[in-house]
Amino acid sequence: MPPTDRHPIIMAAMGTGLAPFRAFIQHRAYLKRSGKEIGPVVLYFGCRYSKKDYLYGDELAAFSAEGVLTDLKVAFSRDQKEKFYVQHHIDRDPELLYKRLITQQGFFYLCGSAKQVPIDIRAAVVKAIVEISNTTEEMASDLVNQMQIKGQYNVEAW
Ligand SMILES: NC(=O)c1ccc[n+]([C@@H]2O[C@H](COP(=O)([O-])OP(=O)(O)OC[C@H]3O[C@@H](n4cnc5c(N)ncnc54)[C@H](OP(=O)(O)O)[C@@H]3O)[C@@H](O)[C@H]2O)c1
Fold first, then answer.
1. CATH code, residues 9-157
2. CB of 86 shorter than 6 A to ligand 1
3. Could you tell me if 44 and 90 are in contact, meaning their C-beta atoms sit under 8 angstroms apart?
4. Measuring CA to CA, which residue among 77, 21, 87 is closest to residue 53?
5. What spacing in Å lies between the alpha carbon of 121 and ligand 1's midpoint?
6. Cβ(78) to ligand 1 under 6 A?
7. By CB neighbour count within 10 A (0-12 exposed, 13-18 middle, 19+ buried), where does 34 fall?
8. Is pTM, for the whole model, over 0.85?
9. What is the pLDDT of residue 64?
């Protein structure tokens, strides 16, 4: 976890990958309710259908209303004809990802399927860094590698 509770946490959860992040968010909520200062909490969440699969929608909305969850970006992949995934939110708003991860030195956590998801989301993170900082893809990719080594970019995939 980040060295302080004021560092942002940025979570990308696919489906059942939300499970560990409920605990991350609940912990920050506990700190906030205890009067402690907490940093931004960003959740990108992807599931198939809003009606069938967004099981913790009410809980997440309550955390947003409470100011614990700073940014909630949800992608329902099968509610429309074209697939819409978590990384499309990053593509749409690269400034948000860049601000929380690079400017504010947040810690990134990805949890979900091990096949294509970590590759695609990493590519979106690299692309956001390239777009906002005007660097090369190679340098942005190196930066993410360094973050991974330092524990600032974490993947739990199965
Ligand atoms: N029977 C059911 O109704 C049902 C419903 C949900 C899950 N399941 C099963 O339950 C198990 C766990 O499912 P889960 O909820 O953890 O995961 P999941 O439903 O398989 O995936 C979660 C979300 O990740 C999306 N996704 C797929 N490829 C992606 C990529 N490259 N980048 C970003 N997002 C991507 C999926 O979209 P797409 O799948 O639309 O591409 C879906 O919206 C699986 O075995 C699944 O088959 C069954």
1. 3.40.50.80
2. yes
3. yes
4. 77
5. 15
6. yes
7. exposed
8. yes
9. 98
| C-alpha distances in Å from residue 134, one per residue of 32, 126, 128, 139, 140 | 36, 11, 10, 10, 9
How many CB atoms are closer than 10 A to CB 19? 11
The alpha carbon of 48 and the centre of ligand 1 are apart by a number of angstroms equal to 6
Q: Is 5 helix (H, G, I), strand (E, B) or coil?
A: coil
Q: What is the DSSP string of 73-121?
A: EEEETTSSSS---HHHHHHH-HHHHHIIIIIS--EEEEEE-SSSHHHHH
What is the atom index within ligand 1 of the atom nearest the CA of 16?
16
**Are the CB atoms for 28 and 5 separated by under 8 Å?**
yes
Domain ranges of the chain: 9-157
Ramachandran angles phi, psi of 70, nearest 5°: -75, -45
Token duo for residue 68: 């614990």
Q: What is the pLDDT of residues 45-86, one digit of tens each?
A: 999 999 999 999 999 999 999 999 999 999 999 999 999 999
